[in-house]
Amino acid sequence: MNLNLSAVAVRERAVTLFFILLLAAAGAYAFVMLGRAEDPNFTIKTLTVTTAWPGATAREMQDLVAEPLEKRLQELTWYDRVETTTRPGYAYMTVTLKDSTPPSVVQEEFYQARKKLGDEARNLPSGVLGTFVNDEYSDVSFALYALKAKGMPMRELARKAELIRQDLLHVPGVKKISILGERPEQIFVDFSYAKLATLGVSAQDIVAALQRQNTVMPAGSIDTRGPQVFIRVNGAYGSVQAIANTPIAAAGRMLKLSDIADVRRGYEDPPTYLIRSQGEPAIVLSVVMQEGWNGLTLGKALEARTAAVARTLPLGMTLDKVTDQAVNISSAVNEFMLKFAMALSVVLLISLLSMGWRVGIVVAAAVPLTLAVVFLIMLETGRFFDRITLGALILALGLLVDDAIIAIEVMVVKMEEGMDRIKAAAHAWSHTAAPMLSGTLVTVAGFLPVGFARSTAGEYAGNIFWVV
Question: Nearest to residue 97, comparing CAs of 46, 52, 53?
Fold first, then answer.
């Protein structure tokens, strides 16, 4: 005898009610616990390699540096292509893996790339700096905060930004925080070649004196009956004044560097890049969210912590929010809830007007109960709310509403013809289950290529198939 779930559900009312309440509670729990993000996670299968060789021509960078590195990178299992840009003293390489690379092996491929580049770096010409590898392109900023203070030195602003970074790292859900826009400090030694020539000093003499003085080297150790005592000769500079006091030999006499040059502290000039917020120089803190975390929860936590930090800032210093993904996430979730409420209201209204209040409630309850099961499965499989899964849920609402109305209407018609509830439910199951399943499978089949695509597009949009 074939199992007829509709007949069993009507016959065992107490058990059915128990499972309805259990599913509703579990679905509500899953809805609260599911992570929320603006976009689904996907793997960026690209890394960049930077090398420098001061004094080399663009041709030398290509022939002696870039080409040997390219040959080693071509040994990667999932290698696709490398694009290289060279200019005098500099080479920049973009390495791309095949689009079909499984996400689970991408990090291993990046590790192998680092190993091969490290091995080949020993064979590069003397004086080559690098290789410097960057493969952290998957970290997307969840929120950006601009720290600024009119008239305050950049180094003071940078110190405060670091303190704020350390504070915000303790917020649950924060993966890492990067500081952007900090201008590197430099010590400038300005001198006149004419004055140096008069004193018999060359620029090379100044460079040599600075290199001799700014050294840290071991000088041995003293063995005692207790701990071993290490001796170190430390000539490293600790201040601008120490640099200014560097002795320079000139025509048989010793002069301070400050006697023949102007020593001052400054910033990289011209700067590599500048960040301005509302027209003022600023330092930006970029917050990255942990994978699968609830973006709305993190947004509220960051709002509270930054408000507390802002109250402790010195007079004239401000911490302003530039962007916040929590706003976009909230908008997407609210859009889904609005469409869900509209669908439920339309179904309930039509069912009440055409079939009565009892039937209307049953039809209306079928939609959230089905979604409750979906939320549970999403929670167990590591999926979360984003623009793809929410879009899939909105698409599925139409199927849920149609199927519920069809099943209930068939059952009502048979009851009006004289069948009892159990037989009417059994009839509705036996005559509508297969057609509705077929119709659903036809709809789902339209998303089948996306769900099983072994590509970045499939990784990004694949959940539209699994959720529907």
Answer: 46
